[in-house]
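Internal tracking record. Fields below are filled automatically when a chain is submitted to the structure queue. Please do not edit lines marked as system-generated. If the sequence contains nonstandard residues, flag them in the REMARKS field before resubmitting.
Queue: standard
Priority: normal
Entity type: single polypeptide chain
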Amino acid sequence: MSFKSQPISVGITKTFPCSYIETELEQLLVLQEDNIGLALFEQLLALGFRRSGGTIYKPQCPHCNACLPIRIPSFLFTPSRRQKRTLKNNQDLIWKIVDTQAESHYELYETYINVRHKDGPMYPASREQYNHFIDSGWLDPIFIELWNKDRLIGVAVTDILPNSLSAIYSFFAPDEHKRSLGSLLILIQCRLAKLMHKEFIYLGYQIDESRKMNYKRDYTPYQILTSSGWQQTPEE
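SYSTEM-GENERATED OUTPUT FOLLOWS
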């Protein structure tokens, strides 16, 4: 595979049990490169790839195509009534951007995984696992922090690219679940994309069959990557 002047090598993993649909097997296309430029990575995002740490991958499952790459056109997005309520109900919170990891980030992540995702592949949380999916060596994310007075209650790990933002992962204080902080962090990223004049926010994969991964269609209008390219839903 070649992009402009940079050829890249792509491998494919063996099949393994899917983390999201129990009856399916998962298989991934994986880029085997030590250094990827931001413009090239953004091209790969537009082709449906994602990153975890320094690994860039795309589902290529033998009998399933449930993982649908999804992105939000930032300048077209308008919060729904429910999302406006989420914003209103969290006006007492403060958010800010930092460009380095903090010990409090990992502590919050550990609590989040061990309380909310005991049935998932990331349980139990570990520092090695946390560093592995954030650190890449060729791209430093930003960390959007949510604060309730002097308490850190949410973090969104986000990549900034030339024309887009890519949401890597968000985690929050489990005891603050009534605030809909997962939704709030996405809404903040939508706002940030507009402020930074970025065209898209990449949210990863929408998986309709997975209860934990089928929420991304709530942010409209959105675009889904199909065999015919990116298709936009009508505004709801």
